[in-house]
């Protein structure tokens, strides 16, 4: 295990967190994992032994007391982010936090105040920006290859719904915040800030979603501050595979990002032409996760500004909440990006914005 570089603790060792610990320990230059924490002691022991660390905790607060700890990587449930971010910031730690930033917009403001007050480096976890395809598309757009971007289209389709415990909006933020947040971030990244959204959706595949007060399919129409337009469709019932695609239409051309066939094989038979599909998110975005962590470590180690800021996390969350609000009130919702407020268009026109 590497001993030099940024000394990191990973808190939250589920599927993603345990992989992050391994990536940081073995694949990221200038990173050294010196501690792990998870409420499940057996899980913490397993990951700690796997990567060879001696500091293994069930409470992240104990990890924060390690004097030589430089940074904390947070991959716990969304509902726990606020507390961990605030305490880490107050300890002066460098912070990486997985998406979404939080569930509550009020909590995001409190988190941002803690980060700003303590002047700590904070990197928001939006890994799709670091996927080779998305990164190349961004570069080509900046180089003017498709002219001015005018239409954004994105699809995010899970092959099946997650567990009801995870999907519960109280814990994960639900369809709009958990699944849609990546596309809302990409929409802002490619097109600029969002000024208006209009959402429709329903329970179409999994009746049990009603028990947690969430839906399994939705579409969000978007108006950007520049006057350009977009749409995002999200589904928990892709069935055929993990399907993540984005298209940006420009005045001189179009860029399409994403793929569905995982291996470069097509089978041709009399009755069908077939190929496989991407099974799930880790197979599709493993390199993006690694690139994201490498970027986080390098920029923090070198004293550079974070590539994805806490404000990016907050603005993406505002779009997600506005989309959810639009679904609830069944009308367009307008966003004020300066005040980070939003409200139904009919209310906004009377200068009565809400949070």
Structure write-up:
It is built from 12 helices and 16 strands. The protein is an alpha/beta fold. The protein has 2 domains: 6-127 and 286-308, 3-Layer(aba) Sandwich (Rossmann fold), CATH 3.40.50; 129-284 and 315-345, Dihydrodipicolinate Reductase, domain 2 (2-Layer Sandwich), CATH 3.30.360.10. Helix 4 (81-90) packs parallel to helix 5 and helix 9 crosses helix 11. The longest helix has 21 residues, at 281-301. The termini are far apart. The model has no long low-confidence stretch (mean pLDDT 95).
Short key terms for the protein model shown above:
8-stranded mixed sheet; 355 residues; alpha/beta; single chain; Dihydrodipicolinate Reductase, domain 2; Rossmann fold; 12 helices; 16 strands; 6-stranded parallel sheet; 2 domains
Layout of SSEs?
Blueprint: E1 6-11, H1 15-26, E2 31-37, H2 41-51, E3 55-57, H3 60-64, E4 71-74, H4 81-90, E5 94-98, H5 105-118, E6 122-125, H6 132-142, E7 149-157, H7 164-167, H8 169-172, H9 174-191, E8 194-202, E9 217-224, E10 229-235, E11 243-250, E12 254-257, E13 267-268, E14 273-274, H10 281-301, H11 310-329, E15 333-336, E16 341-344, H12 345-348
Parallel strand pairs: 1-2, 1-4, 2-3, 4-5, 5-6, 7-10
Antiparallel strand pairs: 7-11, 8-9, 8-15, 9-10, 11-12, 13-14, 15-16
Helix pairs in contact: 4-5, 5-11, 9-11
């Amino acid at each position: 295990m590497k001993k030099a570089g940024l000394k990191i603790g990973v808190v939250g060792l589920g599927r993603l967190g345990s992989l992050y610990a391994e990536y940081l320990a073995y694949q990221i230059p200038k990173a050294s994992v010196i501690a792990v924490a998870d409420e499940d002691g057996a899980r913490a022991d397993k990951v700690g032994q796997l990567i060879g660390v001696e500091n293994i905790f069930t409470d992240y607060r104990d990890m924060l007391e390690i004097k030589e700890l430089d940074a904390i990587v947070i991959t716990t449930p969304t509902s726990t982010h606020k507390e961990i971010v605030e305490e880490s910031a107050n300890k002066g730690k460098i912070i990486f936090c997985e998406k979404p930033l939080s569930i509550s917009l009020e909590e995001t403001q409190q988190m941002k105040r803690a980060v700003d007050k303590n002047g700590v480096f904070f990197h928001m976890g939006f890994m799709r920006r670091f996927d080779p395809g998305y990164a190349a598309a961004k570069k080509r757009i900046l180089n003017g290859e498709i002219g001015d971007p005018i239409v954004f289209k994105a699809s995010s389709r899970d092959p099946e719904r997650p567990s009801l415990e995870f999907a519960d909006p109280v814990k994960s933020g639900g369809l709009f915040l958990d699944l849609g947040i990546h596309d809302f971030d990409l929409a802002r990244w490619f097109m600029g800030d969002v000024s208006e959204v209009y959402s429709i959706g329903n329970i179409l595949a999994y009746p049990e979603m009603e028990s947690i007060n969430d839906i399994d399919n939705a579409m969000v129409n978007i108006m950007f501050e520049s006057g350009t337009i977009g749409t995002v469709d999200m589904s928990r019932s892709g069935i055929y595979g993990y399907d993540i695609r984005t298209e940006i239409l420009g005045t001189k051309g179009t860029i399409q990002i994403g793929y569905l066939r995982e291996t470069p094989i097509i089978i041709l038979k009399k009755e069908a032409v077939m190929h496989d599909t991407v099974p799930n998110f880790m197979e599709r975005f493993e390199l993006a996760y690694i690139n994201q962590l490498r970027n986080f470590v390098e920029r923090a180690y070198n004293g550079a500004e974070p590539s994805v800021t806490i404000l990016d996390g907050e603005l993406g969350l505002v779009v997600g909440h506005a989309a959810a609000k639009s679904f609830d009130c069944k009308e367009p919702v307008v966003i004020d990006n300066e005040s980070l407020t939003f409200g139904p268009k009919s209310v906004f026109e009377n200068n009565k914005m809400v949070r």
